[in-house]
Amino acid sequence: MALSEQEILRREALTELRNLGIEPYPAAEFITTAYSSEILADFEKYEGKEVVLAGRLMGKRIMGKASFAELKDAEGRIQVYVSRDDISTDEEKTMYNVVFKKLLDIGDFIGVRGTVFKTQVGEISVHVYGLTVLAKALKPLPIVKTDADGKMHDAFSDPEQRYRRRYVDLTVNDHVKETFIKRTKLFNAMRTFFNDKGYLEVETPVLQPIPGGAAARPFITHHNSLDIPLYMRIANELYLKRLIVGGFEGVYEFSKNFRNEGMDRTHNPEFTAMEIYVAYKDYNWMMKFAEDLLEYCAIAVNGSSEVTFGEHTINFKAPYARVTMTDSIKHFTGFDISGKSETELFDAATAMGIIVDKTMGKGKLIDEIFGAKCEGNYIQPTYITDYPKEMSPLCKQHRDNPELTERFELMICGKEVANAYSELNDPIDQRERFEDQMRLSEKGDDEATGTIDEDFLRALEYGMPPTSGMGIGMDRLIMYLTNNASIQEVLLFPQMRPEKKQIKIELEEDEKLIVFLLQENENQMEFGLLKIKSELSGKKWDKAMKNLSSLGMTEVVVEGEIKACRLKE
Fold it and tell me: In the beta sheet, which residues pair with residue 384?
């Protein structure tokens, strides 16, 4: 493994620390007494008091016998003041002159003990009297600079690098951490809402003998001891319904689901869903329950029922608009799907310019029409209700119209966020629906259920009370609550394609020298100064700069009248 100049220097610093008797990775507990945010928020409480902090060293400004540094802990950033005579006890002042000034680098973890004060310019700081090395960083962090106007330079912003190195992303991009704090707030708020109503959080299998509860392609694995295929969960619906059969009145689960399908800005093959089932309720009750839940969660996460998503302001305040699927399609296309045959639906979809094929049944054709022509128009939270029977094999037949089901989907910004039913609890009807799905699967519809879950049907035969169930896509919901248009932004470690192996580049000594000088100057230096510091002849300078540019390692940056060379990330 080829190391950069900075990585070599950091390893040398590691060795020097050990030679000084300082363990760069100590095992002992380091007890802190405050966070940076607490000190900054309540200076009067902490002024003159001793505090102990720990975090990453994010900047140093060396000024002779005293220096300022920036410390980033779990709650934020704070300035620390380090004086030679305060942290060094020996005559050589080793802790300051050697350790702090030369051997500590940006990204190292340190602990500090000191008193809280304000500088002459009014910045709240910690005057350090004790410094402890907690962990040496062997790779340099990207240096993100902010100018006087608040404009960021050299930001660590490439999406692929950010997702692959989320640990770096969280360190240098403070707003990213806030997204995941809000994600946890959402889960906690939802749990509180359910628990306060007496519903029980449960766990169901991730490895399942039959991929049931949704229409999706599963991931398949093999159980060696049992010598049987198993499927990674595509949904947990059928197991939760079994628990309603068993006597629980309300159960919910935050489940990791896996679907072997496409990846894009709103879909990841591994995702988190919440499903809840409550006995003796119907889909009308669930609509009221869902809008109260989402209003509560929006306020818990952001302090308001209104959130900004892109160019839209979304209001989660209840109640939400309700539109039947039939009326929606009629409104946006002029076509009435009521009572239409499969052939009529196929011809209508084709006439609308929608790509369909002969493997699609009535439900799939209606879904394609709605998806292409209708759903993108619903920006504010809107319930689309009363789906055709062919689209909903697990849903109870509508009490007033046998062609429809008691189902709703909640649409926000043109995407489904929640899906809910009055659950089908007639075991004979359920078997017939499963058999219809089998026929569609045999016809070639790879999203239709290709197997019948006999154990689930047996459970229904023991009797399941009237029940309403709902599933919510947690990843998509937190996208809206944090104004992130990509699902990868709300997953700590999204699925990525295999990383391409980097081609090893062998640099000449002159080229290495220029790279080293740039790295020592935060990856950028004015051309004239860089040439002077390199001490290269004109011919060697020209050759080295030309080679670095052709390798894509450097670029020219013009800021006003200053022309500089910048080392690319």
Answer: 323, 409
202 strand-pairing partners: none
Alpha-carbon gap, residue 212 to 215, rounded angstroms: 8
Comparing CA positions, the residue from 480, 349, 482 lying closest to residue 410 is: 480
E-state strands within 341-466: 382-385, 407-412, 415-422
| Residues 31, 38: Cα–Cα separation, whole Å | 16
Instruction: With residue 81 as reference, give the H or E element that holds it.
Output: strand 76-83
Instruction: Give the C-alpha separation, 105 to 112, whole Å.
Output: 15
SS3 at position 62: strand
pLDDT tens readout for residues 137-149: 999 999 877 766 7
Task: Out of 226-235, 250-259, 392-401, 493-502, pick the least confident.
Answer: 493-502
Contact (CB, 8 A) for 47 and 84: no
pLDDT at position 216: 84
Amino acid (1-letter code) at residue 292: D
Q: Give CA–CA dist 105/13, Å, rounded.
A: 9
Six-digit token pair at 53? 């902090």
Residues 6+ apart with CB under 8 A from 248: 200, 202, 279
Which stretches does DSSP call E strand in 214-282?
220-223, 228-232, 250-258, 270-279
- C-alpha to C-alpha distances, 249 to 90, 197, 395, 471, nearest whole angstrom: 71, 11, 19, 17
Q: How far apart are CA 33 and CA 27, in angstroms?
A: 19
Residue 241's Cβ-count burial label (10 Å; 0-12, 13-18, 19+) is: buried
Q: Percentage of the chain surpassing pLDDT 90?
A: 75
Preceding omega of 211 cis (within 30 degrees of 0)? no
What CA–CA distance (Å, rounded) separates 11 from 40? 35
Q: What is the pTM of this model?
A: 0.83
Query: Which of these, 203, 238, 206, lies nearest to 457 by C-alpha position?
Result: 238
Confidence (pLDDT) at 522: 82
Q: SS3 helix, strand, coil % of the chain, rounded to 5?
A: 35, 25, 35
Name the token pair of 1. 């493994």
Query: Of 37, 31, 123, 40, which is closest to residue 76 (Cα–Cα)?
Result: 37
Question: Which residues on adjacent β-strands are paired with residue 109?
Answer: 56, 135
- DSSP code, position 405: B
Alpha-carbon distance 478 to 486, whole Å? 11
Given a contact cutoff of 8 angstroms between Cβ atoms, the answer to whether 468 and 406 are in contact is no
CA 98 – CA 355 distance, rounded (Å)? 70
Instruction: Look up residue 189 and give its amino acid.
Output: A
pLDDT, tens only, 409-460? 999 999 999 999 999 999 999 999 888 888 877 877 666 666 889 999 999 9
Minimum mean pLDDT range among 64-68, 309-313, 440-444, 445-449: 445-449
Sign for the pseudo-dihedral over CA of 132, 135, 140, 144:
negative
Instruction: Give the model's confidence band at 501: pLDDT under 50 very low, under 70 low, under 90 confident, else very high.
Output: low
